[in-house]
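Person: Please comment on this record:
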Amino acid sequence: MAKKRGSGSVITKLNKIDTRISRVERLLGKVYRKEKEIMKEEKVIEKKEKKIGKQIKSLKGFFFKRGYMMELIRGTAGAFLGVGIGQKLISSASLAETLSWSNIIGILVFILLISGLLLYKNEKIYLKKKAHVFVFRRLGELYTISILMELLGLALFAAWPGWNIILIKTLIVGSYAAMSGAVSFSILD
């Protein structure tokens, strides 16, 4: 009888162990399923983060959409290329000294008109309402970039005419090539 009692207690203990193992396996199954759910949610969150990261970049508290940043980079690159070409081919500082104000204003109107038409033609399929507001805003942005790049170019190419009226004329004449480059680069996709 001792053998039966001993073997019975061993069998009972083994049954208890089997029961506990099955409970642990069920808990592990629940944990495994929960872990899968969490991993799926993490993947969804990562996709959303990538999408947001592509759309918005932060620069010291200012937020820019990715498209605006690319527009700024393209405009700057095109303007600086235009400045370099303009300095070499037309020598804007010496040309500005010889041109009258009517010619300078004519150059300014011409470049703004041509640039505006190019921007409108390129963007009109995307713009349903207020296309003229968009074109004027974009023209202002690109012309500002062009003037800044022209100032930088005058300093870098050692063509600075001094702080006088010739500087203003030089900026307007030089902005012709800079604005051409900026608009050309900005309409590229």
Notes: Residues 2-56 form one domain. The first helix runs from residue 2 to 55. The first strand starts at residue 56 and ends at 59. The beta strands are 56-59, 62-65.
